[in-house]
Amino acid sequence: MQIFDITQRDNPFPVGGFATNGTCSGVDFYGVKAVVTDSDSRIWILDLANPAIPSLEAGLPVPGEPFSVSVDGRYAYIGAQEEGGIRIVDLYEYDNPSEVGYYNTPWYAVDIQPSDDQALVADWYSLELYDCSDALVDRHFTPVNPTSYGYRVQVNGAMMNALPLEERDEI
Known about the structure:
The chain contains no helices and 16 strands. It is mainly β and about 170 residues long.
């Protein structure tokens, strides 16, 4: 993962980085911390107080191949491929993160966006909304039945946006 200074929008430059064991596939931030997903079945919690020298706070193994991450409050919602599904990680003790919820999605959970007690998930073959109340993924319903595969999702208030799989390479 590389960290760039973008104060001069027309001239961004690298200021630091962190080498993961695999390929960095996702990152999200909370305060001066970052949660990084790694293709080597792990997430990393980094302290970015000094972006030139990010420090490792913790690592946590995650089944499957973590593909995306989205932080909402004290929880990191991890979308993983293969048997990974959705993983919910409590970041309250950032130096000792713990998994508090799990749901095996029908296919690869390639993108996830939490909103309140729900998470919108694109999992290649569908777009699904999960109930994550109390950080336990125990009830599942599908409000959308798209004609194309889901790839990227975004929640903005009451609106949900999805990018179909066939459009992903056009970005």
